[in-house]
Amino acid sequence: MSERLSGHTLLVSLIATPIRHSLSPKMHNEAYAKLGLDYAYLAFEVGNEELADAVQGIRALGIRGSNVSMPNKQAIIPYLDELSPAAELVGAVNTVVNKDGKGHLVGHCTDGTGAVRALAAEGVDVKDQVITLAGAGGAGTAIAIQLGLDGAKEVRIFNIKDKCYENAEQTVEKLNTRTQTKATLNDLEDTEAFYQSIAESSIFIDATGVGMKPLEGQKLINDPAVIRPDLVVFDVVYSPAETELLRFAKEHGAKKAINGIGMMIYQGAEAFKLHTGEDMPVDYIRELFFGDDAK
Ligand code: NAD
Asked: For the whole prediction, is pTM greater than 0.85?
C-alpha cells in the first residue's frame, strides 16, 4: 500500500464517530490498489463539534471527497454547497464530492442506490412494483426515497410508533408529492395490515435491523403463509449474513432471500464512482470481504 502513495496521491476521507470499526477504509483502499488508482482513503474521528472545521479542512486541503456517517449525516448539510436530488429528499448525506478539488462540495446519499443496485444484481427490478418496507429510519428512508426516484408503483411503509414514525410520515409526504410513487404509512404492530400488504407486494424489504444484535434470532414475519414463491425478501442486515427472516423465507420457498451485503458493497461502489470516476471491482471486493457469506 505505501508503495502506491506519492506526492500526487488524492485523499478521500471518512468522517464519523465512532468509526475505527468501519470496513470502508479497507474496502476503498483495496479497490484503489486493485485498479492502480493513486488514491488513499482514511477515517477520521469527527463528531458534530468538529464538523465545521473538518468540512473546511476538506476544502482547504483539496481532499477529493468524503464519506460521512453518524452522527454527521444530517448535520453536515448546512456546510455543503449543493445536494443531489436523493440527498435533498432523504435529508441525509453519506458521500461528499469536492468538485474538481476546488472546494465546491456536493452531498450525495448512496444508501438507497446501493440497495436498488443490490436488488438489480439479483435480477430484481423495482420499477412499477408494489413494495412493502418495514422501517423508515436512516436506511429505510434512503431506500424509500430511491424506490420513488426509480419508479416503484407503491411503497407501503410500516413502522412501529417510535421516534421514527414522524420521520416516516414526512417520507410518505415527499414520495406522494415529489415522485410518481404512491406511498402509505401504517403501524407495524398492525400485523393483519402488514401481512395483507405483503400479500399484495412483489418485494418485501426489512430495514428495521430486527434479526441483528441485540434482536438476533427475531423476525417480523412469523406466519409461513406470508412467504410466497413469487415474493422477494430483502433484509438490509449484513451481519449475520443470514438473519432469522432470511432463513424463514428460504425455508418456506420465497423467490429470493437477499441479505444486506450487496447494499453495503454497492453503496460503497456508488461513492467510489463519485470520488474516482471509476467502477469499483465489486466482485473482487465481495469475495475479499465476505467470501461465501455474500452468496
Ligand atoms: P435507525 O435506528 O435509523 O432505524 C431503525 C428502524 O427500525 C426504525 O424505523 C425503527 O422504528 C425500527 N425499529 C427499531 N426497533 C424495532 C423493533 N424492535 N421492531 C420493529 N422495528 C424496529 O437504524 P438504521 O441506521 O436505519 O439501521 C437499520 C438497519 O439497517 C441496521 O441493522 C443496520 O445495520 C442496517 N443497515 C444496513 C446497511 C447496508 O449497507 N446493508 C446500511 C445502513 C444500515
From this structure: yes
pLDDT of residue 101: 84
**Quick one: cell of 8?**
500526487
Q: Under DSSP, is residue 205 helix (H, G, I), strand (E, B) or coil?
A: strand
Half-sphere exposure for 113 (CA within 13 Å, toward CB) = 19
Confidence category of residue 96, pLDDT binned at 50, 70, 90: very high
Q: How far is CA 225 from CA 100, 129, 258, in A?
A: 54, 21, 19
CATH of domain 112-258: 3.40.50.720
Provide the 10 A C-beta neighbour count for residue 164.
19
Binding site as annotated, residues for NADP(+): 135-139, 236, 260
- Please tell me the predicted confidence (pLDDT) of residue 294: 58
What the block records as the C-alpha cell of 125 is 427490478
Residue 59 CA, ligand 1 centroid: distance in Å: 32
Going by CA atoms, what residue is nearest to atom 18 of ligand 1?
Answer: 210
pLDDT > 70? residue 203: yes
**Strand positions, DSSP E, the chain:** 10-16, 39-45, 65-68, 82-83, 95-99, 104-108, 130-134, 154-159, 182-187, 203-206, 232-235, 256-258
Annotated catalytic, 73? yes
Burial level of 94, CB count in 10 A (0-12/13-18/19+)? buried
Q: How far is CA 266 from CA 133, 138, 183, in A?
A: 19, 17, 25
Mean pLDDT of 179-204: 98
Give exposure, 18-36, as e/b (b: 16+ Cβ within 10 Å): ebeeeebbebbbbbbeeee
Is the CB–ligand 1 distance for residue 185 below 6 Å? no
The domain locations on the chain are 10-108+262-291, 112-258
Is domain 10-108+262-291 given the CATH code 3.40.50.300 in the classification? no
DSSP letter (8 states) at residue 81: S
